[in-house]
Automatic annotation (TrEMBL):
Every Aminotransferase class I/classII large domain range: 27-391
Signal peptide: none
Source species of the chain: Halomonas kalidii
Lineage of producing organism: Bacteria, Pseudomonadati, Pseudomonadota, Gammaproteobacteria, Oceanospirillales
Name of the top EC class for this enzyme: transferase
Protein name: Amino acid aminotransferase
Domain of life: Bacteria
Matching PANTHER family: ASPARTATE AMINOTRANSFERASE, ASPARTATE AMINOTRANSFERASE, MITOCHONDRIAL
Pfam families reported in the protein's UniProt record: Aminotran_1_2 (PF00155)
Family assignment from sequence similarity: Belongs to the class-I pyridoxal-phosphate-dependent aminotransferase family.
Annotated EC: 2.6.1.-
CDD domains: AAT_like
Length: 395
């Protein structure tokens, strides 16, 4: 019965990993894989995580199921982290948390919820967006459309975005990146978020906010500005949160689907349906990652250590962005690539064309996605001069 099944191309980024491993160039640079890396090129386990895991190992008494919504202690710490301490949304009982297998799992829960309970509603995503968005929503049976986000000059096309949002049919779902837009790194200003709110409210759209990089842009609270604005001023919002990046627990698959409803009663109705969606997908989420997050954020001492480590990661990335642009100055390219310093998060839409990316790989051993998206965490002060020289050679 499997004879008719055709082979499909492998994941492009996974292919980059294999090609990078086989490259014998001693100066090779990996800018493709979407994980944080330190100055030595490693993805470290955070100290707060190590200490939390030691406590869990010592005190854990069971490996039983944690329920379709996950560990209540996890929701207790994630909700205020995302929506803010003293949030009026939380005080009104308008939001609930469902622990999920990563941010991707939260997105699939949201997609299935929309497909089952909002039939006929389409979803709109930015162009470009995280490639997996393009697979998750159609897989759930949703029709997907795109709105402009970056123009031909590799700048944020907010005017085009806003004009497109104003034409979206009433009641459709619009996916927004809360911060550290993946793959471009271009984020909305507070004024632009206000304009988006006004259009979403006027058009009666349902925002689905992908919040995968809280703390990697400007700060934990600063990065949540758009999320909190929408949740506090709209009756209904869907938020997908991830702890994979800001806690460095990628392989533990730790995410959260946050549903915001008009009032507490409607929230309980929605929450009951989300539990069914979760059960039909995977029954119960994995426990360990959520337990780590809960252990850290319930401890003032561990939470302080974690925030300090997260600040160090964020500052390192933002410093590397500025230093990269400065490294291009001797070649007269600092203005052309000034956008890299303005972007936020791990990723940068560099503006490099596919042919230039190919040359960087073949001639210099520098690996990135052919769209020109680079993982800035792959920069280091040891390779910036080499990167600048190589980029100058292909311009």
């Amino acid at each position: 019965m499997f004879e008719h099944i055709e082979r499909v191309p492998g994941d492009a980024i996974l292919g980059l990993i294999e090609a990078f491993k086989k490259d014998a160039n001693p100066q090779k640079v990996d800018l493709g894989v979407g994980v944080y890396r330190d100055a030595q090129g490693n993805t470290p386990v955070m100290r707060a995580v190590k200490e939390a895991e030691a406590l869990l190992l010592k005190n854990e008494t069971t490996k039983t199921y944690i329920g379709s919504h996950g560990d209540p202690g996890y929701g207790e710490v994630v909700l205020p982290m995302v929506l803010g301490e003293g949030s009026p949304v939380l005080e009104a009982g308008r939001a609930s948390a469902t622990q999920s297998p990563g941010g991707t799992g939260a997105l699939r829960l949201a997609a299935d919820f929309i497909a089952h309970h909002l039939p006929g509603k389409d979803i709109w995503v930015s162009d470009p967006t995280w490639p997996n968005h393009l697979g998750i929503f159609p897989a759930a049976g949703l029709t997907l459309h795109k709105y402009p986000y970056v123009d031909a000059d590799n700048r944020l096309d907010f005017a085009g975005m806003l004009a497109a949002l104003e034409e979206i049919p009433h009641g459709d779902v619009v996916l927004l990146h809360a911060c550290c837009h993946n793959p471009t790194g271009f984020d909305l200003s507070r004024e632009q978020w206000q304009q988006v709110l006004e259009v979403v409210r006027e058009r009666g759209l349902l925002p689905l906010v992908d919040f995968a990089y809280q703390g990697f842009g400007e700060g934990l609270d600063e990065d949540a500005y758009g999320v909190r604005l929408l949740a506090e001023h709209l009756d209904e919002v869907i938020i997908t949160s991830s702890c994979s990046k800001n806690f460095g627990i990628y392989c533990e698959r730790t995410g959260c689907l946050i549903m915001v409803a008009k009032n507490a009663e409607q929230m309980e109705n929605v929450r009951s349906q989300v539990a069914i969606v979760a059960r039909e997908n995977y029954s119960n989420p994995p426990a360990h990652g959520g337990a780590i997050v809960s252990e850290i954020l319930h401890s003032a001492e561990l939470a302080a250590i974690w925030r300090e480590e997260l600040t160090e990661m964020r500052d390192r990335i933002n410093t590397l962005r500025r230093d990269f642009v400065e490294a291009l100055a001797p070649y007269g390219l600092d203005q052309k690539y000034a956008c890299v310093a303005e972007q936020r998060g791990m990723f940068s839409y560099t503006g490099l064309q596919p042919e230039q990316v190919d040359r960087l790989r073949d001639e210099f051993g520098i690996y990135m996605v052919r769209s020109g998206r680079a993982n800035v965490a792959g920069f280091s002060h040891d390779n910036l001069a080499y990167l600048a020289k190589a980029i100058a050679a292909v311009n």
